[in-house]
Amino acid sequence: MKKKSTPPEWARRFLSWYCRPELLEDLQGDLNEYFDRNLKTKGPRRSRFIYILDVFKFFRSYTIRKPKFLDLFIQWIMIGSYIKTSGRSIVRNKLFSFINIIGMAVSMSVGLLMIAFISDLLDYDNFHEKKDRIYRVITADQRRDQPLMNLASTSVKGGKEIRESVAGLEELTLLRNGFGGDAAFGETILPVGGLWADPSFFKVFTFPLVQGDPVTALKEPYSLVLTEKSAAKLFGTTNALGKSVTLDTSHYVVTGIMKDIPKLSHIRFEALGSFSTLELKKPNDDGGFLNWESIYSNYVYVLLPENGTLESVQIALDKVSATENAAIQNRKITLSLQPLKDIALGRHLTNQIGTAMLPLVVWILGGLAFMVILSACFNYTNLSIARSLRRSREVGIRKVIGAVKSHILGQFISESVIIALLALAFSFLLFLFLRIQFVSLHRFVDDLVSLELSPKLISYFIAFALVVGVGAGFIPALFFSRINAIRVLKDASSLQLFRRVTLRKALIVLQYSFSLMFITATLIGYNQYKGFLTFDLGFTTENILNLRLNGTNGDLVVKELSELPEVKEISRSLIVTSLGSAIGSSMKYKRMDDSASVWENHVDEHYLPLHQHVFLAGRNFNPKPEQAEETEAIVNEQLLQRFDIGERDPQKALAEVITIDKKKLTIVGVLKDFHYETVEEGIKPMVFRNTTDKTSGYINVKVFSTDWSSTRAAIEKAWRKVDKVHPLDATFYDEQLEQAYSQFSVMIKVIGFLAFLAVSIASMGLFGMVVFTTETRLKEISIRKVLGASEWILILLLSRGFLFLLTLASLVAIPATYLFFNNVVLNNFAYHVPIGITELLAGVTVVMVVAIVMIGSQTLKVARSNPAEVLKNE
Amino acid sequence: MKGTNLGEFEELVLLTIAALVNEAYSVAICDELEKYTGRSAKLGVVHTVLHRLEEKGLVKSKLGEATNVRGGKRKRYYLVTNTGKATLLKAKELRDRLWNVIPEFALKRI
């Protein structure tokens, strides 16, 4: 016979949860009566639905249970007792408390670091008084046949158009980068960097002036506003209003001294030059200063009025874009607004004015930290439930005396909160240490955040500890609150101690899976990183020192350097390749309508031999007098492919003529493909041109030396002879490569550290579980021993279960990590080394060995115990 | 508390309770209302009204004996209090008085 249909259980429970007790019975009865009635006429499915609907319909103000203040009051007066019992329990079980507190402290310190990091990012630009009304005009640049480019910068033309034609803006300020140079005051020469800014700058942003008038400071041409710090460096005093400074060849007058910029500002500069200076210089003669398409070096910020709306401004911006786009071809430039508060922690834009962080990175870091914290919480949950036998009598007596479920729940949650707060104290100390490590990970991090303590941050920390405490203690508390007092008091062993075994096992597997994923990811990442550094780029980077020219006369430096005995070869180049920086030009071959952008590098005739580039055909550049016209080009295979030059045959491509920058160049050599960009990118068409600039670019020096420090000193001396202002900026190519991939090394360090924490925490938890299980099974072991079991069999018996769990965890973790890296992460890299079996298994092996040693040592201790001693005490 | 004025539906419920004498509990009231008015009386609405009437002191309630229908839950029976009776009479009286002053011809042509 079919089972009689009943109302849905959860709806019934929900009703009895929210409903006042005095109304409950009648309501339940009514619903039941209706349910039975509907069952006959409408069938079980529909009547269940009606029942649920009715339960929700009864949710009215007069049916809802009022919170019991008496209950809260009891919780409050019992807190003293809870603290006392918690304290006793912590002291009584030293090992478990140690595992819990240390595990939590370690994981929470990572959490604290994340909180401080995120809180700093969210605090960016908070010092601007009108921060909620400031917006940046950003640009979307769509060229035909090319991916959309989103820029933080915009054009001067755009800024001016907006100022004139867009109504409903309170203020608009135009900035341009590239201000700066060597500032000279008397004998002091100080390189300063900064921005060109117009007079509205101080109206939009809150950068208080210590001296000078914010209204007029940036009005006149050749006005200069310095920060207090740079003024002190240049003049030795911050009292410098009206002083004249020579910047390169122009004379500027100091019209304002500004308070130093707070660390958490996305705009940073040492000095501001008045925008009118730029206009006076008539820069439009070279490179279209006022072109709609010059969108790369200017920034426009607008201030909306108090009641202004974004939509109306956006419509006006679209109108400006549409008008201007009508005049250009094959390209669409669209302006839009970005709130100031979204800049520091916001979407990826090219040409950022200052530092910025992608929310995705924060989510990933936060997620990883969360997993480590979760792991520590699992430890707490696991160990508490495992030990429940010892506390169940206490709970039983509390219940008999009159405690209800919520009281027990309160007690155990407050216990875990107390442990979390204790852990917070330790983790705070760890945090202070970690903070230093984190900031020194990379220049970028140091630049981005300060991680300063503030009352707000401390309150976040405490709130975090409370959340962790409640999170860790909730499941055990729920477990304890459900204990049946009578059964427990009658016979404690009747408590179904191992009923929760599946949950505990699942938690252990989950914990170990996390840890193994972390550790495997670290190893794979490290191997990939090593692979990047040792990657065959197609040319040599060994023993090459790259000197950056910063307005220094390169010819003189070359002359000085060539006299050093350690220097074997010297060449010049515009950029250093394979580091991520690139220069592109538009190139044409025979078909005049087919142009494509190609990467290029400008080098002298020594460059290619020095770097040992491989020629497939042709020859190196001929030496060229400085003033002579440029005629030769050396290209790579990809370029032949792209333009189909000489049927893609290097030999036939020789003597073909290509057009770059309106110059006709003859191909004199074809190089084997090499990595112009980082190995994340594929190889693209590329051309070497034979031209060098006297004062910019790099000098590449091949050095052979046994004593690096003295060689460096000699090079430094040679540099000093030529340039007394700028310090020598020289780095070995291999070090530059390391820097180019430093983001990966930072990532590996971070994930590696988290992996270490996760493994430690998981191991501690496992250790606790092993100790507990072996202790509870002591009698069983003794009896087995008496009956003749050998030590080995006992060890196997005790550790079998744990080893099974660990195997399960690795069966989950390793394929998951492999698939994640192979199919998701490494797809972003055009060139990478394959994932080896060693990286996959090394982590597992180490973790397993640690676990086996732990399990083995504990089980051995128990297996070796004297059965007579144990059994005697019954 | 609101005054002792009765709403239309409240009055209907109160009358139904009086009509059912000792058998007035929520489901029965619903059924009775449906029978007389022809509109469907929702349980939730009736409950709210019963609650309000009790608050106004027009009805009182007590739980009945447990039976094996309704999932073993007891019924809550409602009885009209003296105040309730007075209120009902007052309402009827008010209506009667109004009926009496309506001239005969005003309602004749229906």
Give your account of this protein's structure.
The complex is a heterodimer of chains A (874) and B (110). With 874 residues, chain A is of the alpha+beta class. Chain B is elongated, with a radius of gyration of 16 Å. With 110 residues, chain B is mostly helical. Helices cover 54% and strands 9% of the residues of chain B. The mean pLDDT of chain B is 84. Chains A and B meet through helix 2 of A and helix 3 of B.
Identify the notable features of this structure and list them briefly.
heterodimer, A: 874 residues, alpha+beta, 4 domains, six-stranded mixed beta barrel, 51% helix, 16% strand, globular, B: 110 residues, mainly alpha, Arc Repressor Mutant, subunit A, two-stranded antiparallel sheet, 4 helices, 2 strands, 54% helix
Tally of structural domains of chain B: 1
What structural class results from the helix and strand content of chain B? mainly alpha
Q: How far do the termini of chain B sit from each other?
A: 41 Å
List unreliable stretches of 5+ residues of chain A: none
Radius of gyration of chain B: 16 Å
Shape of chain A: globular
Main sheet attributes: strand count, strand direction, barrel closure of chain A: 6 strands, mixed, barrel
- Average pLDDT of chain A works out at 86
In helices, the fraction of residues of chain B equals 40-55%
Q: What gyration radius of chain A follows from the Cα positions, in whole Å?
A: 36 Å
The strand order across the widest sheet of chain B is: 1-2
Oligomer: heterodimer
Number of domains of chain A: 4
- Tell me the structural class of chain A: alpha+beta
Count of helix runs of chain A: 28
Strand content of chain B: 5-15%
CATH architecture of chain B: Orthogonal Bundle
Please estimate the helix content of chain A. Answer: 40-55%
**CATH topology-level fold name of chain B:** Arc Repressor Mutant, subunit A
Strand order of the largest sheet of chain A: 3-4-9-6-8-7
Overall 3D geometry of chain B?
Answer: elongated
